[in-house]
Write a structure and sequence with these properties.
This protein is mostly helical. The protein has one domain. It is built from three helices and two strands; from the N terminus they run H-E-E-H-H. It has a two-stranded antiparallel ribbon with strand order 1-2. Helix 1 crosses helix 3 and helix 2 packs antiparallel against helix 3. It is elongated and about 55 Å long. The two termini are 29 Å apart.
């Protein structure tokens, strides 16, 4: 398996909210992230504050989607910018909530690829 295929597999696994170590265990129970994988027992967060990376992924994706989307709609239509805000302001509030779990899944995958995710022996 080449590096591009392996990277794609892990990114898709992170977006599917599966453990990057065993690819079986669920990262979340409802809206709450589990501390360990129910299948292989790997710890998702070794130290407090590691979830900040997921928050940063969420922030970057939301900001890029907002800015690019706003200017794309502005360039493609004659809708005045203030009228566009009827859509974009709720988007800026709801999208981060909906993308939260996926951004945390991507961050857990990133920590796994960096070698920071493993079981305590």
């Amino acid at each position: 398996m080449n590096i591009g295929t392996a990277l794609h597999k892990y990114i898709v696994g992170g977006l599917r909210l599966r453990c990057p170590n065993c690819e079986q265990g669920a990262l979340f129970a409802g809206f709450t992230m589990r501390q360990t994988c129910p299948q292989c027992g790997v710890y998702y967060e070794k130290r407090s504050g590691e979830s900040v990376g997921g928050v940063m992924i969420n922030l970057v994706v939301v900001e890029c989607a907002f800015v690019v989307g706003f200017f794309a709609v502005d360039a493609a239509t004659d809708i005045p910018p203030l009228n566009q805000m009827v859509f974009w302001l709720p988007f800026a509030v709801l999208f981060p909530l909906l993308f939260y779990r996926s951004s945390r899944g991507l961050w857990v995958t990133t920590t796994y690829l960096n070698g920071d995710l493993r079981r305590d022996e």
